[in-house]
Amino acid sequence: MPLVKVFLKNRQGIDKRGIALNLRNIMQNVLNVPKQDGPVTFLEIDSANWFMPEGWEEEMVFVEVVMFPGRKKETKEKLIKEFADVLSESLSISKSSIITTLHEPSLDNWGIRGGEQASNVGINFNLDA
Q1: Whose CA is closest to 90, among 59, 121, 47, 53?
Q2: CA distance 92 to 51
Q3: Alpha-carbon gap, residue 69 to 103, rounded angstroms
Q4: Which residues pair with 63 in a beta bridge?
């Protein structure tokens, strides 16, 4: 069950719903997650609170994906690349302005289905993608 957060400088006129749907489609295709999984949250930061280091693009986008562990290196590489492709095109920014971080806490560290540890609940999709 991937959870996606997209951090970006506040901007007008972007289709967040469309971007979220595209990111969810990528997760379904690349990670083989069920259609109902993969919430995407946008965290827009006001320009008064957005400070990039010298030499960095002003329109940086930071993506954090928290997901169950076990995917292959190639799968994660494909996810990162496809996320960058969609975000670059959708936001009209350079792919080099996108940083994606994948976090894979153990199943013992996930509380799902009313407070059950994910390690004690049957996961109904293949994590070895």
Answers
A1: 59
A2: 20
A3: 8
A4: 6, 100
pLDDT, the chain, mean: 91
Domains in the chain: ranges and CATH: 3-120 (3.30.429.10)
Return d(Cα 53, Cα 56) in angstroms, integer: 6
Q: What is the reported pLDDT for 124?
A: 63
Q: What is the dihedral of CA 110, 113, 116, 119, to 10 degrees?
A: -60
CA–CA gap between residue 14 and residue 24 (Å, rounded): 17
Q: Which residues contact 25 (CB under 8 A, 6 or more apart)?
A: none
